[in-house]
Amino acid sequence: MKAVFMTDVGRIRQRNEDNGGIFINLSGDRLAIVADGMGGHRAGDVASEMAKKNLEDLWMKSEKIQTAEQAEEWLTHNIKDVNKVLFEHAKKEPECEGMGTTVVAAITTDRFATIANLGDSRGYIHNESGFQQLTDDHSLVNELVRSGQISKEDAEHHPMKNVVLRVLGTEEEVNLDLKTIIFEEGDVLLLCSDGLSNKVTEDEMKKVIISDSNLEEKASMLIELANNYGGEDNITLVIVEFLDGSERG
């Protein structure tokens, strides 16, 4: 299995409030994270960095993940614990009041991938069924789409597109979404902030993901696309690729 993490400030923003990474613990299990921070002053930076660092620290001390149930339990328990850490920090530090961060995180093994998300950072999979989104956005426009009040096309240009309903750190308790899928040779997992998904279409993502380029080149190509379309937001992504036998040599 190979993986790459990449982040870019974009063309407009002065600082990068996104964070994330790929972390392999002593058991050899892999955790990938993308977090998109939000809040006044520098609170967005603080929220995404705290989420990433706390989850990383917990992951490096965790025991071997054997089953999907263990992966789902680990993500649920620890993301909720980290939420409380962020919430308490925001209460104590006036400059961090109201801070929060999206999070999409995946535990990947050679049998399955388990994805958890809060907010509008996304997870996608490319496998034998094609390229598809795995996560649901916790956003106002997505709720309007789900209730039939607007179309998916309308949602792309809706003035309230950036309103996120569920994030890490703004409430004392959070409910996250979980999904486990079979992860097989040849499959590719993409996690990203909305700086990518708001700018690059699924067809464009798929073309890059299935190209013959290496992982670093694919990540750079996706970021370049988002920047070429305006780059108004920070752009962050993780690609995890389950190599088939011929590629592993």
TrEMBL record:
InterPro entries: PP2C (IPR015655), PPM-type-like_dom_sf (IPR036457), PPM-type_phosphatase-like_dom (IPR001932). Coiled coil: none annotated. GO terms for molecular function: protein serine/threonine phosphatase activity. Residues 2-242 form the PPM-type phosphatase domain. Gene3D superfamilies: PPM-type phosphatase domain. Keywords: Hydrolase. Its EC number is 3.1.3.16. Pfam families: PP2C_2. SUPFAM superfamilies: PP2C-like. PANTHER family: PROTEIN PHOSPHATASE. This is Protein phosphatase. It comes from Cytobacillus purgationiresistens.
